[in-house]
Amino acid sequence: MNYQQVLDEIFLNIRSLENVGKVASYIPELSKVNPDQFGVCLKTLDGIECGVGDWKTKFSIQSICKVLTLSYAYKILGDKIWERVGVEPSGNPFNSLVQLETDNGIPRNPLINAGAMVICDMLLSQSKNAQTEFIDFVRKISNNPNIDYSYKTAQSEKSIGYRNIALCNFIKSFGNIRNEPIDVLEFYFHICSIEMSCQELVQTFMFLVSDVINSKDNQSILEEKKAVRVNAIMQTCGFYDESGEFSFRVGLPGKSGVGGGIVALHPEKYCIAVWSPRLNAKGNSFRGMKFLESFTSQTNTNIF
Ligand code: DON
To answer: Which residues in the chain belong to E strands, given as ranges?
Structure first.
């Protein structure tokens, strides 16, 4: 299979369609991004890496980072994380408060804002340097010491973070946040602010493609039995109230972010990242969804 040719063809085709949707402007820093940038990178288990468009340009990965915080917490804390966060798709927007009331402050899953905050709280409780240790983990799995938080974007989100502040305080009122909400939110805004290019994203997420991908010092990043469960959660919960649609059209585990990035992977074959900042009504990249639908159809790699 000539993957470069497939990427090029789909890229040209999607780029010729009207690019509808809106950039996430509720975070002031994200509204400054050129909305028509578009990049794709693919990395296969047998070592092929190819890309097209703006695949080397860094962007704000936003909620994509929630897969990384989940993986890190699962690695170091194990199954006890499931006492405080569920594994069910929420069927609701990423920043919804509604289910928390009836669910007694237990978020439906770790990939919605509420669930990611509870994961952040767990990480804060087990270390005084959670923010540094987490970015070190990300650098280790990406094999890239230059990955970093964007303090500007974190600050920008904090300046308008009213809904997330409400969410965190609401969960605290049920006792499922143990630290001070202000500290949990500070950490949460930072994890969301991490910047990566499509190329860096696929490099980072290869640890979920195969447990044989080891870190530099040759220690497995996440046990296989945990990695398969992270993939299952991405499959069912990675796109909020569009998770069913993504599964139906694309058929891969994946995760989106309001920066316009989507990472998706075939557990036995490859990892692919697409970035295009205009979002559909559910907050997922318009071109990203379209690109991935064409890609799995043409390469016959829908896992179903
Ligand atoms: O908390 C927020 O609203 C953002 N930092 C992250 C939201 C996000 O990326 C949702 N993804 N589609």
So the answer is: 39-44, 49-53, 59-60, 195-196, 254-256, 261-266, 270-275
